[in-house]
Amino acid sequence: MENNKSYLRHFGLLFLLFLSVSVLIVWQITGQRPDSYNQFGLFTIIVEFLPGILTLAVVGFATGNRSAAIGSIILLVVLKTVLFLLRPEFNQESGQGLKFWLNQLVFLCPYMLFLVMTKPETKRIPLLLICTLLVYGDNNMFAAMQGIDKINDLFDLEWNIPAYIPYFFSYLLGLVIHFLLLCELVNYGKGKAAGYRPRLLNPGNEYSKLTGTLIFWSLKLFIVLSVIGCPFTLESFVRFMEGEAFSHLRDMNYLKWYYLLSILATIPLMFCAAWYLRKFMIEYFMTWQHTSRLLYWFLLLPVLGFFGWLIMLADSDKNHSFAERKKTLGDFSSSSKNGIITVFLILLALRLLLTLSTGQAGSILAVVLSAGLFFAMISSRGGYYLNLYLNLLVMVVLLLILFLGKGAGGEYIFFFYPLILFNMLQIILIFPALHIEAFDYISYEEEETWQPGQDLF
Questions:
Q1: Average pLDDT for 14-30
Q2: Fewer beta carbons below 10 Å: N end or C end of the chain?
Q3: Residues 210 and 291 in one domain
Q4: 426 part of a folded domain
Q5: Are residue 212 and residue 361 in the same domain, yes or no?
Q6: How many CB atoms lie within 10 A of CB 406?
């Protein structure tokens, strides 16, 4: 069997490196002096050079493209050094925009060079270079602290979370996401990934329990932090559109386009993270003999899913052959959806009772509509896609109202948009629990054991 996730073989060690660098970055940023950005010292090396160098080095090591990693690292160091030496020229207000875009170019070029130096199929290069822009999709996480403060105010909570904690996880998960993205792009460039086939499973992919745990927690936390932070990225963009932010400066218009790029990159990156997590979970289930749809659904729940994963680790045995993994997938397919339906009915009944107590007709109608959409989703694939496309339509409409109306209905949109986005990601993730028959897998012929009297060749 072919393992297309061989780049995860040493992921535990690589994750430890990511964690160490994230600690260094947060330590430097929280203790920085006002002039740190203008002096070439430890701060500059750690904050501006180290993340890019580490990402390129570990991707080159994990995918076996060491020459590409060396070449792209040299380019990164040269460009960063030149840009740093030219900083005095950009200190004036009129040069801020040019400096900013040069920084973004320096950030992207080494990644693009790395992908080209891996010698991908020529016809795939344009898409590879475009997909490199997805690295900007992790910016929402850095606004998560604002989201946590908003939740505190909304529900009158007293979560005294130090500001450096969300920043630490944002840097750590950013490194993990960039690593996974570049490795998958390398696979696609070399034809190891079968194009856009998100429902194709590979029973040959190997995941250890440690790697599986790190991948599961990282992607789940990335999705949660990005959803929490997304309304504040939208709010910043709207403020720039309205001319409120930094109105005393003349050359800050470039930030408006940066926020727009972040918003446009965030949505596809989060969808890719959900697709990757969904595929990973099913292949992990195949590898470690998990056959319950209810368990799969439970793992998707916020907070509870993290603890559910730890419990699941204690009771699992590994399948080594293709036949065993195929059987596990068959057992998963034949398992009942009744557990998921029962839990939903209980939650729906509780919601209906709360709604009836308020006596609001609109809320009752919303409960009835939710029930109808859910039963449509579990009954057929058509109903599932109806839910998916309705959520996508609502997302697009909310963004259009916000952008074209220059902030019209901002408060409501900032509240409902992350809920719709999170619901859509959950719909993507829950698909196997409802319609596993829609998934296909790569078939591997079992090799026959040699018997006496047979010709070896």
A1: 88
A2: C
A3: yes
A4: yes
A5: no
A6: 11
Q: Are 77 and 138 contained in the same domain?
A: yes
Same domain for 358 and 315: no
- 204, 1 in Cβ contact below 8 A? yes
The answer on 147 and 41 residing in a single domain is yes
Please report where in the chains the tokens 């270079």 appear, as a residue.
129
Which tokens in the block code for residue 399? Answer: 């963004």
pLDDT digits (tens, 9 = 90+) for 135-181: 988 888 888 888 777 777 766 777 777 778 888 999 999 999 999 99
* Nearest partner of 427 among 398, 385, 393, judged by Cα: 385
What is the C-alpha to C-alpha distance for residues 359 and 298, in angstroms, rounded to an integer? Answer: 32
| Residues 153 and 105 placed together within one structural domain of the fold | yes
Find all residues with CB under 8 Å of 335, minimum gap 6, and list them.
Answer: 291, 292, 293, 294
- 223, part of any domain: yes
The residue assigned the tokens 């050094």 is: 81
Q: Please state, rounded to an integer, the average pLDDT across all residues of the chain.
A: 83
299 and 213 Cβ atoms separated by less than 8 Å: no
Domain count, the chain: 2
- Taking residue 169's Cβ as centre, other Cβ atoms within 10 Å add up to 19
**Cβ partners under 8 Å of residue 46, min gap 6:** 21, 24, 25, 28
Residue 373 belongs to a domain: yes
> Which residue segment(s) compose the domain that 413 sits in?
338-441
